[in-house]
Amino acid sequence: MSEILDGSKSSASKSSRSLGELPEIAAVRVGIDLVSAARRNIGFLRSVAYSEWLHHTPIVVEAIRRYHDLWMPLISDLTVPESIPLMILPPFDVEWVWFCHTLNPVSYREYCETRFSKLIGRAAIFDEENREYALMRCREIWSSKYPLESFENEASLDSRDSDPMIVGGSEDVFKEVEKQRLLCSKFAEPYRSEVVYLISARQRYKAFLYMLQRFAHESSSRLVPTSDILLMWLTHQSYPTVYVEDLKALALDGDVQKVATLSETVKEKEFEETKKLWDRAFNQPYEKAGGEVPLTWEGVISVKSPIYWEESDTDVNTKYRSMIPRFLLEVCVFVRLKPGTKALQKDINRDFLRLRIKRCHSELKLDKSLSNFPFDSWKKAWHLYCEFGTKGVMLEYRRHGGNCLKGSKLQDTVSFRWNDLLRADSLTLEKEVSQQVNVVTSITPPVQAPYLLKCVPDRVTDDSGAMISDVILKMNSYHPQEGRWLSRTVLDHAGKVCFVIRIRIGGGFWRRGGETPSAVKWEDRIIEIREGSWYYVAGSIGRAPEKVVATATPKEPAEQWEAAWCFSTGDELIIQWESSLSVSGEVIEREANAISSKENKVKEQK
Question: Which string of b and e fits 544-559 if b means at least 16 CB within 10 Å?
């Protein structure tokens, strides 16, 4: 074990072990439940992000005054040195200022010691009921101590003061609040608050502290934390008394100055140096899925997530049972050649790795030549976002020139299942391929992602929702079908039918004789959405689901608008476009004639 940590032997003699197996990492103690604290901080940051009023300068200035003149003297009087912080919470705006100030430990410590001759800590309150009680208790103490001061921030948002006055030497605090204004965006992905992710982040943070303790004096550049480690670091800092005591126990009080902060510009060589130290200490890639370099750090190549992680308090799936929720996870695959592969240099030029998905997407084949991978460091080969239903990924070791000149022959294969990775240490697994390549795969916990829907044309239906067809006529004893509705079928990401959308375009009857329908007025062109799938009665002929979940009725727009609709929710939609398109009676007539053809097909007229 000491050989791995000292880096005294070559990588050939290293045997990669999980962070959880290292006694040195387990020996790193943190005096607070970082998992619960980080989860609470993420929720707090989201509340701050949603509270737009809190980011107006007059509000911030007033919040800083309340923090400096009211809250800190109050909590100082209630805080006994060497004791657990009192279980009370300040008003929301003051709590935000306090939180931002603690993220600059040096400045906060100097502020407390200069003004109060002691370091003031924050109470660790993670349960929502306890937070409500702590806030109510603070309100009572506040009202008793400051009867003329409102517990809420009453600064006006309409202030015209472009340069509000910051008094009492609070300029540094104002700068800290402005600096952390967009902090929530750094941890906006929903998987950040998953417990399994936070447990992994805590483990990597403890490993980072150990690496800092062991190798910081050997590095001339700053160390750059990844986003998961940064989340834990900021959480640790936000509890000042615990943070100071833990650093003292680890003899790290001065070494943390070599860690790059979120507001600093980082050079790529500094990040590369950090990766080398991590590899030297643990023989693992430093980056992982959900543990990348924050985007605000300039000079470091980073890829912005292509997934829009929309957050919502309620899932529409609880209302529309026909929709299947999607669960996505981020996947990173790192590759490093084993030193013994150098002897097979000629074969390396012919060999390559192919990534495939275990389930679905059978045509997906992502190839990487072995000659692209180094012997002395890890290289990120693939960075993907996958549906949890794909089950996992497979890596094939292949060689060009198999049974045919253009083909390739399979040499070896390994697979990484999502369920195995979820149970693995740090959500990471390492495997060997063909005794020549080491592969490390990491994932983030699967979380529900935005729904993915597509709309495809379908047959024209009548007023009852039945498709215009000889089959329906025969079932109805050849009673004519009345009305014309253009229909669209809505499919989800799995190809399941969720909804049927219909718009009324014509009236009249249809028999086998082929009567021509009549156009309906604009205000009668109702749009309706029906939940569920078609009820098929014969082959592809069927009826739309009966349950109507929403409608839109056209209405006469105002003069400056082109069109308007009234929704069943009570909302209205008005539209103005440059070139207005309308469906004329001739178009509807052509549509109807196409419907009554022998093929019974619809030709859309544009």
Answer: bbeeeeebbebeebee
State the Cα–Cα distance between residues 377 and 3, nearest whole angstrom: 18
Over its C-alpha atoms, the chain yields an Rg (Å, rounded) of 32
* Residue 290 region by backbone torsions, left for phi larger than 0, else alpha for psi between -120 and 50, else beta: left
How far apart CA 427 and CA 202 sit, in angstroms, is 12
- For the chain, percent of residues with pLDDT exceeding 70: 83
- Alpha-carbon span 544 to 564, nearest angstrom: 26
pLDDT tens digits for range 451-509: 889 999 999 999 999 998 888 888 888 888 888 999 999 998 888 899 999 999 988 77
Q: C-alpha angle 56/60/66, rounded to 5°?
A: 150
326: β partners: 449
Q: Write out the H or E segment, with its range, that includes residue 416.
A: strand 408-417
Least confident among 130-134, 294-298, 584-588: 584-588
Quick check: 336 pLDDT over 80? yes
461 φ, ψ (degrees, to nearest 5): -120, 165
pLDDT in the model for residue 5: 44
Q: What are phi and psi of 6, to 5 degrees?
A: -80, -20
d(CA 436, CA 350): 14
Are the C-beta atoms of residues 348 and 374 closer than 8 Å to each other?
no
Q: Which residues contact 56 (CB under 8 A, 6 or more apart)?
A: 157
Nearest-angstrom CA–CA distance, 464 and 468: 10
For the chain, first and last CA: distance in Å? 72
pLDDT at 345 over 70: no
